[in-house]
Structure formats: C-alpha cells, structure tokens
Amino acid sequence: xxxxxxxxxxxxxxxxxxxxxxxxxxxxxxxxxxxxxxxxxxxxxxxxxxxxxxxxxxxxxxxxxxxxxxxxxxxxxxxxxxxxxxxxxxxxxxxxxxxxxxxxxxxxxxxxxxxxxxxxxxxxxxxxxxxxxxxxxxxxxxxxxxxxxxxxxxxxxxxxxxxxxxxxxxxxxxxxxxxxxxxxxxxxxxxxxxxxxxxxxxxxxxxxxxxxxxxxxxxxxxxxxxxxxxxxxxxxxxxxxxxxxxxxxxxxxxxxxxxxxxxxxxxxxxxxxxxxxxxxxxxxxxxxxxxxxxxxxxxxxxxxxxxxxxxxxxxxxxxxxxxxxxxxxxxxxxxxxxxxxxxxxxxxxxxxxxxxxxxxxxxxxxxxxxxxxxxxxxxxxxxxxxxxxxxxxxxxxxxxxxxxxxxxxxxxxxxxxxxxxxxxxxxxxxxxxxxxxxxxxxxxxxxxxxxxxxxxxxxxxxxxxxxxxxxxxxxxxxxxxxxxxxxxxxxxxxxxxxxxxxxxxxxxxxxxxxxxxxxxxxxxxxxxxxxxxxxxxxxxxxxxxxxxxxxxxxxxxxxxxxxxxxxxxxxxxxxxxxxxxxxxxxxxxxxxxxxxxxxxxxxxxxxxxxxxxxxxxxxxxxxxxxxxxxxxxxxxxxxxxxxxxxxxxxxxxxxxxxxxxxxxxxxxxxxxxxxxxxxxxxxxxxxxxxxx
Length: 692
Description:
mainly alpha, 3-stranded mixed β-sheet, globular, TMEM260-like, membrane
C-alpha cells in the first residue's frame, strides 16, 4: 500500500475507537453552546467559529440518528480520525517508515487529552485536522521539484491557511511560521513575484469566506441564542478579535499563572500524556538534525521545532488562567494538543532514525524491521489500554441529567437568570435543541450587560419585560441613547412571573436587596419579595426532593465539568439547611424563631450526613457547628452528650479531609473545649444516677 492507503487505514482504525467512545449527549464547557449555535444557525462565542458551526449544522441535518449533540460528537470523532490520517501521512513522508507513523499517531490520538476532546462537540478536533493538513502540505512543498508543483501546493496551502483561521485562532502561530518559511524558499528560488503574492493572498482570503456567515446570521437574526451583533464592521471586528474576552487571551479579567509555570507544567503534562519515550524521540530528531544540518528533511524538522517553540512560549504568555485550579488547568491543557501534534511528528522522525542507525550498525535489516514494528505496536497498545476506560464517554450523561434536573424542578412559565458556562450552556442546549420546558425563558445575566444582547434577542424572549436596553446597576439614559435598568426594576416589571438565578447572582448590582430575598431552590435560588413571609417547614418540604440525583460523590476527575455538575447537585442537598442556619445567625428574628431555625437546620444536616456514606467534606463542619448551636439552646432540644459526641466526631472527620483549612487551630480548640464539656456532662449524669 502507498502512503495514502496507509493513512486511510490508520484513520479508519482511529475512527472505530472514537465513534464507539463518543458521548450521546452534550458534555460540559462550550459544547452545549456550540451545538445550539449550529442547531439554530446562530453565532457562537468569539471568534464565532463559522466553519465548525456550518459543519455541525450539516452533521445535524445529514446524520440519520441520535440527538443533535450525538450527531455533532460523531462529526468531531470523524474529524479527529481525519487528523490522525494527516499526521500519519506527514510522518511517513518525513521518515519513510509506516511503523514510525503508527507510533506517532497512536501515541497522539489515543492520549487521554486528544481522545477526550476529539469525541466531544468542541473545535479542537477540527483544529487538529488543520495542524495535520498544514504540516502535510509543508512536507509536500519541501519535496516539490518544479516551480509548477510549488505554485500549486502554495495555492492549496494558502487556501487551507485561511480556512484554518475560520476555526481556532491559536493556529495563527503555525500559519505565520509556515508562511515565513515558504516565502524564504520561494525567494531563494526567485518565485516570490508580485503576481504570485497576489494570487496567494486571494487564495488565503477565499479560505476566510466562511466568516461571511457571521454578518449574514446576525442580519437574519433567526436564532433564539446567538452572540454579538456582526451587522456592523465594528461589531464584526469586535467578535473576530475576541475583544469581549481580551484579544489573544483565554479569559476576561483573570490573573493567571506565570509564563514559566505554564511552560514547566506543559512539559510535565506532555510526559504524562504522551510518555517520556515520545519526548526522548523528539529530542533525538532535533539532535540528529543539529549534528548533521544538511540531512534530508532537516529544514522541515527545524520548521516544526520553531512552530512548537513559538506556540508554546506565546500561549504560556497569554494563558491568563491559574493552572493551580483543576478546572482552569482542564481549560488550558486542551490547547496543548496543538503542540503535542508537532511533538509526535518529531518523535516519529526520531523513532525512525533510531532504527535506521540500528540497521547501519547491526546490519540485520529484517530483525531491526521486526523490532521497529513490535515496539510501535507495544507502545500504542499500552496507550490504548491506559486510556480507553477513561475516554469511553458513551454512557456519560452527567451534564445532560444536571440540566434536566434543573429544568424539571422549575414551576411553569418561570424566568431563569443564567450565570456561568455549566448551567448556561447545558440548559440552553436542552431548552432550544431538545425542546425541554418550552414554557420557561432563559436570560443570560452576563450577556444582559452587553449592548447588543437585548436589541438582538429580546424578541426571542416572549413573556419577559425589559425596562430598557441594557442591564446596569445605575439606571438612566446613556449619551448614545441607550436606556439602562437595574435588577430591582427588572424584577418589579416581571413580578407576575417566578424568577430564579442559576447559579448565583451578578455581584455588581445589589439593588434587588432593597425589596427581594434569595431563597434556596436546589442548585439555584428563587428571588422572592421581602413582603412574602418565610415558612421554614413549608420551604423544607417544597425543596427537599427537587432532584433525582444518584451519582456517587467524588467519582469524577477534578478538572472535569462532570465533577462541577456533580458537586453542584450534592451541595444542593444541604443548601436549605445552610440557608436556615444562616437565617438564624444573621436574621432579626425572635429567640424562639432562632431556636426553631437552628433545630430545623440541625435535623436536615443530621439526615443528609447519616444518609450518605461519602459526601462533601464541608458537611462535617457545617453539621458540627449546627450541633453546637442546638447544644446551647434553652430549653434543651436534644441530648447534650449525643450532641457533644457528634461535634467532636465530625470536626475530627472534617480536619482529616481538610487539613489545609485556615481555621484548623480554632477547630482544634473547639474540639478540646467540647471534650471538656463532655466530661462535665457525663460527670453530672453519673451524679444524678447515684442513689441519695
């Protein structure tokens, strides 16, 4: 078989693994939003991802089975398999060894990181495809022997560069490196004429044509969910350059880890994902080309190395997220797939060089050939074995069930003020794409502060009254004629509807506190008029069994959205107890009412702590504090000895699992004091039992 046939076979093998592991529902992160944008032909978050949106819409329409999420997940799996084919082709053309190609692609495609994000409705598998495509075209350009061949490859490459920019902008680093390298080569060959430059520029711009989708979608304004207003040039450029996030930054207003920390973590992460063997072979490739700089393909090795180093340093500089936080680490690591793809190309070349040198020194080509294939097979098999169970997402419906529970718990015709990626994207997908709870209206808190949100989307939010054009704590007209409104005004004009916040409320606008209170509603909260009297027993009965959640606590990876969803649902079980306790602590109520609230909170904590063997560690601390408050109520509600034993037990359990708590010394002091009280109580009980 030729290189193309081998590449096709490799892609088919990867596709078989990817498709069987693909999830049937939308997962966390941007997945729900990207699917919703494609489903309704809206615009996704900056920079818009027009190519992915159009491909996803095509998949939703053409694939004959499964939910919208499953169809887009399948598309991404196939794109990931195509990326594997292109990377294989690149390694084989670079090294001349199919075994090296299998080794390189197997280690990359079946790494936990690549596998996980290649089967999810995200833009990363398409980006991997473009990385593989640009490197394959670079190899073809290097091998071209005539001006005509080079011209043809350059035009195709320029178009692909433009097309790649319609997806993930991080690829611009690779595009710039390749453009500079190709230009220098054409200059040496005296082929870098004005006519050629104009033709290549035209091809690049032709590749960027999918960006026309953004203003067209914004002009038609048919989607119930979309981001931005691209009908003006300023609006288009704002979206394209991600100005609302911070151009070339991952997030807005975030203080991230240092460049050095990110680079060091990238190297450590690379070792964990691809193995030390891959890193060593990549170094071997670079060293060999440094020792013999005129070796065939050495220019390509230096090109790929410069791409890797430039991208790694640039990304580490601009990745303004704190990677010490597991969830942010999970966000950052996804962008290392782009550098890992280059590493495995270098490693594949180094792999082939090692066996080439072995053949020269040993002379037994048949034995060396067999060892090469055996080593490649063993390493790739080990990679698949290590990661299959972790990456098999075919039964993962955690985020799906999270969204379903939140939506099903709501009363009819409610308004939900969304905040955050998890509730926002998952609820939007279920509501708009799956048609769950069409009576409910979803309003995004963050988006309401943007000037384009209400002018574009208010007409798609029937039944909700907006007393202005934009949410701002300070009400009134702005110089440009925009009318702002605060949350208090919004709640006032929508008082005929139940309004909930999921999850949390924007801290910048405290005006609602004047006439409203937040009452717990599972993971969400209900905004209730302060004039409505609070009945603790009634609210406990109403909110105690809102959700049907059966997932075990602590079974998900710390950097996953599944862990965040599971944590929210578990903490929802104690939210009412926490609210009652806090009301007793801070509310201006009578002594009798405080005692009632403390006792009710204690009973709720006791029930959930004793019901579940494994649960959030803060439950121990909260329960111990609730026991302490009940202990000092007069008249006594519970047996003092039992309460003291519970306080000591659960404070100890808390410290065992949360040794880094800054209040550790205070808790230890409290345990010491409770032990003293326990001795006094037991002494008193013993005295009462003695006969007079």
